[in-house]
Amino acid sequence: MATVSSNVHVVNAAEVPPLAADGVLSERLVLGPHTAFEVLELSVLECAPGRCRPRATGTADLTLFVLSGRGRLRVDDELSYELEPDTGAHLAAGEQYELEADEGEGLRLVAVTIPRPDPARALGQREVVRRLADQQAQAATTDRWFRIVHDPDSGLRSATHFVGYIPAARAPDHFHEYDEAIYVLSGEGIFHVGDRTEVVGPGSCIQLPARTVHCLESTGQEAMRVVAVFRPAGSPAAAYYPDGTPAYEFDSSE
Predict the structure, then answer these.
(1) SS3 (DSSP) at 132
(2) Domain range spanning residue 54?
(3) Can you tell me the distance from the alpha carbon of 74 to that of 43, in angstroms, rounded to the nearest whole number?
(4) pTM above 0.85, yes or no
(5) Are residues 135 and 99 in the same domain?
(6) Phi and psi for 10 in degrees, rounded to 5?
């Protein structure tokens, strides 16, 4: 049954004080256990020019999405991947990684931790880093569309990592069967949930529990862009009206 969850949160990442991880890297913990969200944890990493100390994923999987800056991702001190804006990465549980930012503005990234990943999920060939521009555009409801950054087909267990494009037309209220953590990349809009409305813009983060009836409306002249991670993995187009009717017919085998 669809619900209006009381555990929906909208947080401006810029208003969350950064915690210094080391002399190079700081982290803003935006969503997670402290907001009563145990299934996903969203933070913003800010890496000054230089190389941060090694970090470990522990028992969780991790996704990264570059907001700005250029540099490198080093995994287990063996593999190195180039990073630039609109690049996504994912790391598996038990891996160690370092971020290295080039001179200039440094790196800013959205990081989403996925606790307790499903070890039994069948995976495709792993791609640690993928450029958003190289991924296929796919349709969703009300002229919305998206590009998958990572999902099980590219080696990410338990979750789907994607960028969505929301035109300036309000979609009907709907719900998803997955838990989702959303970061607004660009554009202006209003998040509707129950009788609440929240103004959102770049840097707004939304905690959206499964089966919560909602609508994210773009009100600007250009499409709003969001980067999000949801679990269990599936298609971002899998949405349902409050009565349970599918909001968009899609091929679930794709």
Answers:
(1) helix
(2) 15-125
(3) 19
(4) yes
(5) no
(6) -120, 120
Q: Match 């913990």 to its residue by tokens.
A: 29
Q: What is the CATH number of the domain that holds 22?
A: 2.60.120.10
Whether residue 5 lies inside any domain: the answer is: no
Three-state secondary structure call for residue 2: coil
- Number of domains the chain is built from: 2
Query: Hey, what are 65's tokens?
Result: 């999405």
Q: Are residues 48 and 79 in the same domain?
A: yes
CA angle at 94 for the pair 70 and 67, rounded to the nearest 5°: 20
Alpha-carbon radius of gyration of the chain: 17
Strand order in the sheet with 9-12: 9-12, 204-208, 179-186, 224-231, 160-166, 145-150, 137-139
Per-residue pLDDT of the chain (254 residues; tens, 9 = 90+): 455 567 999 999 999 999 977 889 999 999 999 999 999 999 999 999 999 999 999 999 999 999 999 999 999 988 899 999 999 999 999 999 999 999 988 999 999 999 999 876 667 889 999 999 999 999 887 788 999 999 999 999 899 999 999 998 888 899 999 999 999 999 999 999 988 999 999 999 999 999 999 999 999 888 999 999 999 999 999 999 999 998 866 554 44
Q: Is residue 8 part of a domain?
A: no
